[in-house]
Specification:
The chain is of the alpha/beta class and 291 residues long. It has one domain (4-223): Aldolase class I (TIM Barrel). It has helices spanning 21-34, 53-67, 82-95, 112-123, 136-139, 145-152, 168-177, 188-196, 211-222, 226-242, 250-258, 278-287; strands at residues 4-8, 38-41, 73-76, 99-103, 130-134, 157-162, 182-185, 201-204. Helix 1 (21-34) packs parallel to helix 2. The chain is globular. The model has no long low-confidence stretch (mean pLDDT 98).
Length: 291
């Protein structure tokens, strides 16, 4: 259903924080041309936590219009409120998103039962496919494999974006949930190995700045070509590291601005990338051949 290099797309903003929809549209056209396999709009890398509901939906709509059916557009609709997540997911379904990516609720620290009921409530209220997103380094709560197994029994929860970087989870979730359940990496540094071990793809931060390289690396890994995937990933390795020297999406937005793709805006409480990191990220972009 979903595979390859799927970009966790940034939301371009002007210096005053307003969304730059012209730059967003241009990014989608660029990703289509570069071979990106799907766009994930208005998710956490897209600063969803600071988008108002109408802005959030306008971002999704802009991506859908720009993609024009050429590649899938998945809407990020997660929040730490079940009611708000449900409302966003319904709106995304109405707008035409092919699926929803829903992050584990952050701050609340729900139990595993609470996580199960959160995702179940949304799955029962909409018909589009849902991909759960587990990133405990950001949310604190960890969606454990046994809970994923319970969720996989719901017909429209079709996969998980697993961002722990723990490759052994791949095998455990696959064993529990079966081959039809979509396993997507949420950790660029381990994505190649994740795919080689049977994952379908990655929802990637690095793909924002190196879309063609990420697409080619993922394609090689999906074909089981470890040598080619490794050669491509070696070019990306420094980027994978440097794009997380400060909280995502601070570094990747700076990198895209440096590439002339977007303006430099970002919303508080996030701030612009510290000057001490500029040289290293610029060098990583040049090493990957994208600057």
């Amino acid at each position: 259903m979903f595979q390859g290099s799927m970009v966790a797309l940034v939301t371009p903003m002007a210096d005053d924080g307003r969304v730059d929809f012209a730059a967003l549209e241009a990014l989608v056209h660029w990703h289509v041309a570069e071979g990106t396999d799907a766009v994930v709009a208005a998710a956490t890398t897209g600063e969803s936590a600071t988008l108002e509901t109408d802005e959030h939906m306008r971002v999704v709509e802009c991506c859908l219009q720009a993609a024009a059916g050429r590649i899938p557009v998945i809407a990020g609709t997660g929040s730490n409120s079940t009611a708000h997540t449900l409302a966003l997911t319904r709106l995304a379904q109405e707008r035409g998103a092919v699926a929803a990516l829903i992050v584990v609720p952050y701050y609340n620290k729900p139990t595993q039962e609470g996580l199960y009921r959160h995702f179940r409530a949304i799955a029962e209220a909409v018909s589009i496919p849902i991909i759960a997103y587990n990133v405990p380094s950001r949310t604190v709560a960890d969606l454990l494999p046994e809970t994923v197994e319970r969720l996989a029994a719901l017909s429209n929860i079709v996969g998980i974006k697993e961002a722990t970087g723990e490759l052994e989870r791949l095998q455990e979730i696959r064993r529990r949930c079966g081959d039809a359940f979509q396993l997507l990496s949420g950790d660029d540094a381990t994505a190649m190995e994740f795919i080689l071990r049977g994952g379908q793809g990655v929802i990637s931060v690095t793909a924002n700045v190196a879309p063609r390289l990420m697409h080619e690396m993922c394609a090689a890994a999906r074909n089981g070509d470890r040598k080619k995937a490794g050669m491509l990933n070696q070019r990306l390795d420094t980027l994978h590291k440097q794009l997380f020297v400060e909280s995502n999406p601070i570094p990747v937005k700076w990198a895209l601005a440096e590439m002339g793709r977007i303006p430099a805006g970002i919303r508080l409480p996030l701030t612009s990338l510290a000057r001490e990191y500029h040289g290293n990220i610029r060098a990583a972009l040049k090493s990957a051949g994208v600057l």
